[in-house]
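Notes taken during the Thursday session

The instructor put the following on the board and asked us to keep it in front of us for the whole hour. The protein is Serine hydrolase. We were told not to look anything up and to reason only from what is written here. First, the residues (372 in total):
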Amino acid sequence: MKANYLIIIALIFIAFSCKKDDESAIPAPAPDQPVEQMYFPPVAGNEWDTMSFATAGWDTTALTALYDFLETNETRAFIVLQNGKIVTEKYWGNNIIGNAAFTADSKWYWASAGKTLTAMITGIAQQEGLLDINDKTSTYLGNGWTNMPQEKEDLILIKNQLTMTSGLDYFFGSIDCTDSECLQYKTDAGTEWYYYNAPYTLLESVVGNASGLSYNAYCDQSIENKVGMSGSWISQEYNNVYWSTARDAARFGLLLLNKGVWDTDSVLNDIAYFTAMTNSSQDLNPSYGYLTWLNGKESIILPSLPLSFNTSLSPNAPEDLFAALGKNGQFVNVIPSKNMVVIRMGTVPDNGAVPLIFHDEMWEKINAVIGI
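Then, after some discussion, the predicted structure tokens were revealed:
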């Protein structure tokens, strides 16, 4: 059954790729567009300036179709920022336990969208001299953190954890299991790309051991307190999942849009690291940076499917989009050419690890509004 499912998904993406090859390509935006008149909400409090639809240049006649699509597909929160200001902020449905309406104060899980937050946390730890991403992971986790021969374990660097190239055997047991007996050798680090949760999750222990702080405490100190986020990491079996409000996610998106700078505070001032994080980090899957998805590339490898497809992350979205993406449609989309951040939280009917078809359909609706 699983093999048949993967074949079906593969055929869908092959067809999707061929379809797009016949269509006119979305023109590439001018690179390195300057950020002009960027607004940052105060670190404390709920104040956040807004921008009118007219100022943003939106086609309001297309908004109903966008909102209907989002609500029909079980969206809880949707926010769009332009130049840092809120253009739209909508909430639907109930909170996570179903006993009240979902509001701006409701917390929701990020799922794998939290990976991009971890990428920035790791970069800050390197900036502070606590670690180097070219260090062996065993420097911080100790020898024997995997069940590999030691000479193979020693090939795994922090950078491999950031780029999904650890070489661990994804056919053995659960890809969430972080116990050493679950972490078996498949291939040398850096030679294969696979969306494997366990090495990513262990980055939290790497940062924790390097900093001497709990992961929540280091996240607070390095990012949250500087930009006004108030989320938290909560353990769920082997995973450690970030929970926050949609506005917290928007704050993180705005930090990403401004390349790690919040107003006048350089949260991540290592521009080389940020550039590597938001560009192709290896040749195996050019649509992946450091725990960050990238649009506009010539090919992509999808979660749970070790095959490369000749299509981009989201053909309907602007080519320069980069994103934190999580299960059930947790999206932090950043579009530098538009000075735009798009946040979506909720569930989706297909329950995908990273629901890219839904993401692309969402962008088709957004395009009608913003005039792409």
